[in-house]
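Run log // design_07
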């Protein structure tokens, strides 16, 4: 004869999904053996649903909070970038410090605006969905790597055409010049930024229209739908101006020459046969030969690098470096 066994969850409320399943199994098994047991199956099912709803609600709140924090952070980033660009573009300032550092402030504003545009595009649903696939990341990595290698080769050739020596003698200049070429090659892809800006602009127009009709309601103003097109337009204008004026291929030799004097030339040479103060670059592993430039060029600040042009000498001097002998007292 069947012996009745005390139900484990008859007076104990399950506290986890595993215990809920165990309670269901216990109840179903007990009901199959006897119809005289307490029927609590519906209660357990209801409580499982309640627990699931609570977890779904918690996940939804966490997701919404995450999106809100991201939106707030991007909004603050866009505001700071716009303020820096506006102040950096002004020709006159009330404070002397702002006047002296206006160009640097503008560059920082452009950097923050670029960061805002990049993160906003990455957060765009189309690109976010595509970026989930490993093949997309592989193709992007190969393309960027190939472009970096190609830009480095072009930069090495340009440095050689300016100084007449191997670009390995100018490691820092080679790095920054490669970045300039990389900038020129990716510039056409900025048209994608313009296309995304159009989508944001349509949403901004929809919000404006909703203020005059009841066709569409917005809980909050779409701030990014206004900020993105504004900053995207500023960036496109600035980058296009750089590529055609301050960083164009026509002025690239001048930029390379200034970069070399900023980063690689040594103004305090130790060669006994070369006048002190003549900038030199040591060539080869033994550093017994130097490339000398009798024209001393200085770059005071970032603005002078971008805007001030210098004439590149037609001739540089490759000399042996004779070290002075040590003389004891």
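design_07 sequence
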């Amino acid at each position: 004869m069947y012996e009745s066994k005390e139900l484990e969850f008859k007076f104990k409320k399950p506290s986890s999904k595993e215990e809920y399943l165990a309670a269901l199994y216990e109840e179903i098994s007990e009901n199959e053996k006897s119809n005289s047991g307490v029927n609590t199956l519906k209660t357990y099912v209801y409580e499982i649903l309640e627990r699931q709803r609570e977890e779904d609600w918690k996940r939804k709140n966490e997701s919404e909070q995450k999106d809100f924090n991201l939106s707030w952070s991007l909004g603050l980033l866009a505001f700071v970038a716009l303020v820096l660009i506006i102040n950096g573009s002004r020709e006159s300032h009330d404070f002397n410090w702002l006047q002296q550092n206006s160009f640097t402030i503008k560059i920082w504003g452009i950097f923050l605006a670029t960061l805002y545009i990049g993160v906003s595009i990455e957060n765009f649903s189309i690109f976010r969905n595509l970026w989930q696939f490993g093949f997309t990341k592989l193709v992007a990595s190969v393309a960027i790597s190939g472009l970096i290698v190609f830009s480095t080769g072009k930069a090495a050739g340009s440095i050689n055409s300016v100084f007449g020596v191997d670009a390995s003698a100018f490691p820092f200049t080679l790095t920054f010049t490669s970045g300039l070429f990389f900038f020129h090659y990716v510039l056409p892809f900025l048209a994608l930024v313009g296309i995304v800006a159009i989508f944001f602009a349509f949403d901004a127009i929809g919000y404006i229209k909703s203020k005059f009709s009841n066709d569409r309601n917005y809980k909050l103003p779409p701030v990014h739908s206004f900020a993105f097109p504004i900053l995207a337009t500023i960036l496109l204008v600035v980058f296009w101006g750089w590529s055609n004026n301050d960083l164009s291929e026509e002025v690239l030799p001048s930029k390379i020459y200034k970069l070399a004097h900023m980063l690689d030339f040594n103004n305090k040479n130790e060669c006994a046969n070369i006048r002190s103060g003549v900038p030199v670059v040591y060539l080869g592993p033994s550093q017994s030969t130097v490339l000398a430039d009798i024209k001393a060029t200085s770059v005071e600040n970032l603005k002078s690098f971008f805007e001030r042009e210098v004439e590149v000498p037609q001739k540089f001097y490759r000399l042996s470096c004779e070290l002075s002998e040590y003389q004891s007292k």
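The longest strand covers residues 280-283.
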